[in-house]
Every structure is written in C-alpha cells, then in structure tokens.
Amino acid sequence: DIIRRLEPFDCPLAIQNEYLQNVGYKDTKKIQQMGLCPDLSWLVKFYAGKPMSDGTYSRNQLTTYAYVRKGKLLHQWVRRLCVVSGTRLLIYRDKSKSTKPTVVQLAKGEVEEVTVKGHDRCLKVTSTQQGDRSVYLSFDSDTDYSKWLRKTKKATAKLPSKADLSNCHLEFLPETVFINEDLKCLNLRHNALKERPIEEDIYTIGWLDDLPKFHSLCSLNLADNNLSNFPAAICQMKTLTELNIASNKIREIPSEIVHMSSLQMLHIHNNHLNSLPTEMSEMSSLKILVLAFNHFTTIPEVLLQSQNSKSNLDSIIMAGNRVEKLPHEVLCRMQHIKKIDLRMNSLSLLPSETAKFHFLELVTHLDVRDNQIKDLDVRSLKSLEYLNCERNGMQSLQVNGSSLKNLYATDNVLETFSVNPKPEWLVNLDISRNKLPCLPSWASECFFMVKLDASHNVITDLPPRLFCDARKLKVLNLSHNKISEVPSDLQNCVLEDLHLEHNCLTLLPGHLMLQASKLKYLNLTGNDLQSVPQFSFTHSSRLHELYLSDNRLEDDSIPFLCTFTKLRILHIAHNRITEIKNRDIVKLENLLEINLSGNDLRTLPSNLGKHPKLQIIRANGNHLKELPDFKRANNLKVLEVGSNRLSDVSVTNLMGSQVKLLDISGNPDIMVKSSELRGLSSVKKICTVDMRGQNRSLLDLRQAPFESGGCPWQTGLSLTSGMRNKLGVSILNKPQFTNEVEGLFGVFDGGRNDEVIKIIDDVISDTVLEEARQGSSNQNSLKYAMLSIHSKLQSTGQKVGAAAAVCHLKKEDNHYSLSMANVGDVEVVVCRRGEVVPISRRFLVQSDHQECNRICKSDGIITEDGRVNGVTFQTRLLGSSFLYPHVIPDPHLVQMTLHHDDQFIIIANHGLWKYITYEDAVSQIKNIPDPVIAAKRLQDLAQGYGSKESIGILVIRLLLSEKERNKMKTILQKQFQAEQELLAVLKERDVVRD
C-alpha cells in the first residue's frame, strides 16, 4: 500500500471513519466501537514520522558476512554484514540491519584483488566519488570471493541502465539516483512523489521537477503515484520514448506534451480524463496511446483523421470509458484504425451506426465485450480477424468471415448467427452459453480451426463430418446440450480433448476410441450410456483422462475401459457396476485417480492396495464390507470409503498406510477407538473426516435422524483438494450451535491459500456469538461478524483473501428463520417444493455489472482476462485488503422465514457452481434423504464434469414438517428394500458362479 503524508487539513478520525464506511460499516455506533478495536491497525494505520525506505537501484542484492578494514593500516579487521545493491556497498554494524549502514558508492570506482597478510581472499574497493576512499573486504570461502569479485566489478565498470524504485513509499527521489545521468529506464510506480511547491524556501533535489536531469532517459513509469496533475517537467524530456502515468487522478493533459517529440508509447489509462489537447495530433512518433478506464464519452480528436494531423496512431484502446455511440462524423474519420477495444462501455451500436462501418475497412481487431449491443452487424468489416462480443445480451450476430480467425460470443442469447463468407481461416470459435439449436453448417469445413466451444446451448444434432473434415480441430466442447448421437464418420480425427458431458447420448460410435486415436481427454459424464463399444486394440491409446460418471454402465464395460493402459484419471461413479476384477485393474499401471462412488460394489480389487502410482481412491456409497490392505500403496494420499457397510476393517492398518485424508464416516459397524488415533497422531498427520459434524454420524439413517425432537435439520458435507496439494476450502458445520434450537453453517474458500481459512475457522463461531451478544439482529450480527473477521485476519488478510458464505438457522416464536451473508463466489441455494431459490449473490466480475461500475468509480480497473487490478475475479472478499477500495468485505445479506415445504439448503464454493447449475444440483439430490450422500454425489458430479479445484459442499436437509419427515422415511425404506433385493441377486449370482 502507498504510505502518504497527511495534508495540513486532513483529519485522521474522518479518514478512519470513511474507510470503515467504505468497507461496510454503516451504523455510527459500530463505527465508534470499531475505532477502539486493536485489529483495526491492520487495515488503516497512522504513523508519527516517516517510514524508512531503501532507495536502491536494484532488488538483486548480494549479501554475506566479511571481515572489513577501512583503508588505513592502523584500522583493525572487524566482521560485518555486507550488502551490494546496485551501485552501492552497504556495511552494517549488526546482522539485523537496524542501524544505519556505512555506504560506499561503487559507481565509477575500482575493485582490485590484493594480498594482505593473514587474509588470502581479499578485495580492495575504492570509491572515486567519495575522495578515493578505500575499503578492504576479506572472505571466508572461495565461492563468496568469486561472487563478490564479479558483482563489484560489474557495479564499478559502468552505471546501470535501469533503476527500479517502485513500491518504496518515496516522497522524493534519493540523491544517489541522480549520480547516473545516463539512466535509460526508471521505474517509480506505486510511490507518493510530488512536484516542487512554489513556496519552497531552500532548494532541494528529488522532486518530480528534477526528472529532466536524466538526459538519456527513454522509459519512465510514474503509475500509481496519486498525482492530480500531469507533471509539467516531464514535457521537457525529449528523449522519452515510453511514458506510463496510469492509475493516478489526472484530469487534464497539458498541451506542452507535444514537445515530447520522441514519445512512442503513452499509457494514461485509469485516470479522470474526458478530453485530450488537440495539439497531440502533431505527435508524429506516437504509436500507442492507452486511454482505458477514463471518463471519455466520445473518441478523442487525436485518434481521428484530419487534414492537419500528423498522428500515426492506428488503435483505439478505450475499455472502461463512457462511450455510448459511434456517430457518422466519428466513424468517417476512423478509416486508418486497425484495432478497436471498447469493452465495458455503454455502446448499443444501433443499425444506423453499424451501417457506416464500411469506413472501418482496415479494422482487424474489435473488442466490444460487456456493452449493451443487442444486434451486431459487422458484415462490412472485411479485414476483421478478431471479434469479441461476449456478455451483451445479444440476440443476433452477423459477421464477415473473409479474414476471421477468432470469434468469441459466449454468454449471450443467440438463437442463430451468420458468418459470410465461410470463415476459412477461423482458428478459435467460442459460442458457448447461448440458445443455439445447432452448429453452423460450415463448422466442419474450417481447416485451420483448433478449438470449438459450443457448450451450454440446446444443440441436438451435429454436422455429420465434423470430426473428419476439421483437420486441425484439437479441442471440442459440446457439453451441456441435448445431443443424442455422435457422428460415426471419424476418419482422420485429430481431436485431443472431447467434452460431451451432460447430453442425451445412449450409444457411442463403434470405433470412437480406435479412430480418434489422439484423444487424451474424453468426458461423457451425465449421459444415458448403458455400455461402451467393445473391440480389441491393435494400437496404443493416448487417453489420459476418462470420465463416465452418472451413466448406466454395468460390469461388462470394465474389461474394455481397462485396456486404456495410459489412463491417469478414471471416473466411473454413479453407474451400475457390481464387480471389478484384479485381472482388469492391473492393466491400468499409470492410474493416479479412480472414482468408483455410488455403484453397487461389495469389494474393491486387492490390486488397488499395492498399486505403485495410485494417489486417490473414492468409493463412497457402495456396499463394501472390507477393504484391501493399503500398506503397499506407497503413493496413496486420499481414501474415501464413506457410507458403505464396512465392519471388519482395521483402522490401525489404514493409518499405517501413506493415506493423508481418510473418510470412513457413515459406516455404522466400524468401531473406531480413540487410542488407535492417538497412537498414530505422533507418527504422522492423519485427517479422519466426519462428514456430518454431529454425534449421530455413525447411526443407521433409517431411524434416528427423522424422528421428531431436537433440531429439525440434518447436515452432510464433502471436501476435496482436487489436484492441489493444499485444501483451500473449509466448512463450518454446527447443527446445534447453542443451547437454543439454532445452527450455524458456512463454507470458506481461500483459493490456493490455506492460511486465511485456518484463521477464519478459529474465530468464526466466537465472533458470531460476540456480535449476537451485542444485541444485533440475526442479519446484522452475520454482517458485522464477517467484517470483524476481515480485520482479525491481520497480516495474512493484507496479502490474501477468502470467499465466504455463512447461514444461521434459528427457531423463532412460531417459525424458523434463515439469515445468510456471503462474499465472493461461495453461493447458497434453497430448494422449495423441488424448485431452486437462490439467496446469495455471485460477486464475480463477469456476472455482476453493478460491481464492475463500483470498481471503476473507485479508480480500479478490470484487466483483459477479467480480473480486478489483474489479481482476482471476485469483487468482494474477506481479506485481500491491499486491493481496497476495489475489493471490499461488505457482504450480501438475506433474512427470510423458512417455509414448511423448504426441503434443503446447499452451500458450496465455485468448485461446484462453476460446473453444475443450481437446477442440476437440486434435481440430483432432492430425493436423497442422507445429506452426506447428497453432498458426495454433488462432488462426484462436479469432478465428473471436469472440476479439478478444491470443492467444499454442505447440504442441510430441512425437516420442518411431519410431511417432509415421512416423505424422507418412505424414500429411505424404498432405497433400503431395493438395496436388499440387489444384494440378494448378487449373492445368488455368486452361488451360481461358484
């Protein structure tokens, strides 16, 4: 963060109160209370005096302990901490660097290798800028000696051409910088530099006015210095070719900028500009002008052609401005433009405007994402190579395909679109998340197309020669459509990634695997497949990942699936598999992960217990009674066998394996002795997960959970780290939060960081109780609890953040209430009468236009990849306070009365919601009484659809009425009866086989 000096009329208390209001504190009393909180100093702090900063040339420092003698013979050798940084030698008296160092300027000095009695490895360093002062350095090792010889010779041989003084809290430039008048590149980003005040009595050096002293400077970065005015002195710097003065508060560019005759690149984005001086049209060297995230309402004159213009600018880079129209008088002067970036403006581009697009015949790049363009007709842009029109609510799209290479039109409402002539040069096509009933007829004729994404549409049929004629097509995503048949013509297919999950497939082409021989990734989860094609292999398949969860596959498919010997990931969860034989599974010698959950398995192949590479086994929700011995599975890290019928299982043996995450919950007949766990905790860290978080986690679900009395809800959770080593998600699961009838639940997602969620876990319950004791309403107590946690994250919260959702269920006088607060992309949905009721808000850049406007008003930017200031996709988080005021912790709040026909609540992070819609999630689990099995099923499906992130899911099954309790009992009894019948059939099959 920038540390700035308080101005004479600044009021610290007013600054602090404004900060608290901006992060979410609206109540005056709470603001006053927070002002006394010691944790507040981690968010906003006032210093007496100025913080020390190290204004060195370089961050590439060399440090060691050496014996030092200061030239004269009478001086003794003393051991000191020595640091070479850029062109300076710093000698410290103590190892903590707490004292002021002796500074030796190395620029234009000398370094000699000398021999001194008793010191074999000795250098003599002489500073010509300090009166030929000499220092002798003696080193203990040859390694240090050679490193220091090279480093000091480099420092004295010539002055560096670059100086990086960014993030140094500088108000003035250090005098040492001006020694090097031949500096070429100077980075002063993220400081608090100022211009020399008129009333200065004593002349001092180090103001922005002194920058012209660098006669050879070519590149200058003054971004993020809180400048209100363009520094006039910069206009004198005629050698500059690149100037970055972005992310300030500049309202006007002086006309004198025209004197910067060598300037080629000018970055003035993220300021408060609404116009540019007309004189800039005379800057003939200027090639790049970045004007994004300012206040322009029209295209400035300097970018338009005129008789007197000498400008060579051919790009309009104006994302995040306020441009609403491109009138004829502007378009007719844009004939020289090749690139247009107008994303995140207010464009509607009416037919009267696009009719004049023939003036833009040179345009190759057009980016109009996140505008209000309902109908886009760019048929007149014959040179167009790149078009991005995502998230416009667009209903029709017409494009000229003569030169088109990249087309991105995701997240609109297109039912059809037109590209004429046929786009023969097309490489990437993304038309996902629309309402398209079919692919364009020319899709299979694009010879150069590498990637096609048409997921989340309503496509039923595919072009018959899609796989064979698209000779370079490597990635094809057709997931979440209504496709019932895959084309059988697969000759010359070069696909590597094929996504067909969540469709209506019942059969696959007989030679899909054989002819699509380059496939590495195949996803067929969520179809209606009863079998897979059977044939003998005569070649080596390249398939690495195969997803077939949520189909109707039976045992006869297993031998064929196990012929893919290079498989690393195999998901066949939620099918009808009853047996997997050792002779089949042993062929998968490269397997790293297997998911067998939700089948009818009674045993696991014993070979899984000695697989050399296997890291993850998931086999929840089967009929397992015993497990293989996993002591020889040297790489096994995750073993999930919850909700089975395990009985004769030695927990000690399981713990003796390499397993780090073990889930054996929901196995009523397992007896776990605390002594077994205590004895192993000292050997290594083991996590045994109780997926219910309540005392009756091992009870038979057919009885206790649905009896009246106690809390009228049951909970189940599922957690996985995905492909990451760290579990970045945690779950709060307290069905009985206090002595009252109330529960507290939550999911917290720290992304790739687990430090922040550990802190939240430790403080969340006490913080909610503390806020409730202060008399806040349920809704406000959650809000202020989350804001309080934001400050309790302390130094960790300054660097990283977490998405969060917290739900509080409580019995009131004659009803039950639900209070919810969320930030980030952890979301909450309620199922009411089988229908979805979303109650959270998804704080993501791409889905929340209001939040994008708030960020822009707070002088933040959204980078091209959709991140706030290039850091995060989320607009509200607990922590990440370095992104204030753009990212804040103020949560979305909901208070509602629960109905008797409310069935369950799902709280989950983006690892689920990114891959499964609310409607799919609800339909998948609404008839699953056991919330643990429901949570596990959602996790299996998310991973089956390709989720590799950390996933945290909490399902709260509501039993608010006798009708709902009886309904769940009936479903359980039917499931139990069907299970018993299946087990009887399997037992009979075993007898016949024997």
Helix/strand structural class: alpha/beta
DSSP summary, beta strand count = 44
* Number of self-contained structural domains: 6
- Relative helix content: 10-25%
Q: Characterize the largest beta sheet: strand count, sense, and whether it forms a barrel.
A: 17 strands, parallel
Please render the helix and strand layout as text.
Blueprint: H1 12-23, H2 28-35, E1 61-69, E2 78-85, E3 88-92, E4 102-105, E5 110-116, E6 119-127, E7 133-138, H3 142-157, E8 162-164, E9 185-187, E10 219-221, E11 242-244, E12 265-267, E13 288-290, E14 315-317, H4 328-331, E15 339-341, H5 351-354, E16 365-367, E17 375-378, E18 386-388, E19 396-400, E20 406-408, E21 418-420, E22 428-430, E23 451-453, H6 466-469, E24 475-477, E25 497-499, H7 512-515, E26 521-523, E27 545-547, H8 558-561, E28 569-571, H9 582-585, E29 593-595, E30 616-618, E31 638-640, H10 651-656, E32 661-663, H11 674-681, E33 687-688, E34 713-720, E35 729-734, E36 742-749, H12 755-773, H13 778-792, H14 794-799, E37 801-811, E38 816-823, E39 827-832, E40 835-838, H15 849-857, E41 878-879, E42 892-898, E43 902-908, H16 910-913, H17 918-925, H18 931-944, E44 951-958, H19 962-993
Parallel strand pairs: 8-9, 9-10, 10-11, 11-12, 12-13, 14-15, 15-16, 16-18, 17-19, 18-20, 19-21, 20-22, 22-23, 23-24, 24-25, 25-26, 26-27, 27-28, 28-29, 29-30, 30-31, 31-32, 32-33
Antiparallel strand pairs: 1-2, 1-7, 2-3, 3-4, 5-6, 6-7, 34-44, 35-36, 36-37, 37-38, 37-41, 38-42, 39-40, 39-43, 43-44
Helix pairs in contact: 1-2, 12-13
Pfam families: LRR_6, LRR_8, PH, PP2C, RA_3
Protein name: PH domain leucine-rich repeat-containing protein phosphatase 2
GO molecular function, one term: metal ion binding
